[in-house]
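hi! just following up on the protien thing from before. the input was this:
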Amino acid sequence: MAGEATDHAQIMRAANASLTFQQQGGRRSGSSIGQRSAELKRQHVLRKLVRASLAVAVILFAATVTGITIGGIGLGGFVLTLLAVMVAAGFLATYPRLKVPDLAALNQGDVRATVGRTQLWLEAQRPTLPVPASRQLDAIGVRLDALGVQLAVIDPAEPAVGDVRRLIGEHLPGMVASYTRIPAHLRNEQRGGKTADQQLTEGLSRITDEIDALSRKLAEGDIDALATEARYLDYRYGNALEDQGKLTGPV
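and the predicted 3d structure came back as:
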């Protein structure tokens, strides 16, 4: 009975989450789950715009030189130039598309690169995930951004950095990849008392908790330093401020 009640509660929570998500606009498969992946997308768009602008400039320059050389390009030349500009700008503003990183390449390069690639990869998998798990990726993306900022100022040789890299570059995407390889019609079948959807959602929750724990671990030094500085300031200036308050008295 207790197990049935637990399953019922989980089903109701999932249903409520799904209803709320759909009321808020449904699955946002194209949105970014983190600042780092959004920045990678902006850089990609900027590079495409630069290439398109250069192509347009080359076409206009060629048309101008041709017109000067032959004494004008005429209406036909103008139309051809306009078509060439439109085709080049449209093609280069669309292609190449942003490539989704390969699973094996996520944990390469510096930590910021790992964070960005993992976020991009997770965004690409999001449309295939159940709604509760899809929503969890947004929370994970925010935590990955914060973790990336912390790791940027920490020695890469620190053991904690290796733990983080394995978690976000291997374990997290590995769990999602395992789920996506399961045929869709088998994901709602119970195995060991739980469906694949439930196992994924619970696994992502555990990873979220682990990211929080690692973030606290990395911040311990800064928190201790802040506490030490606060105690020093209180010792150095606290009594002086109190004495000053006594001397000035109420106005």
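Helices lie at 2-23, 35-70, 74-94, 111-125, 131-151, 159-180, 196-248.
The two ends are 70 Å apart (CA to CA).
cheers
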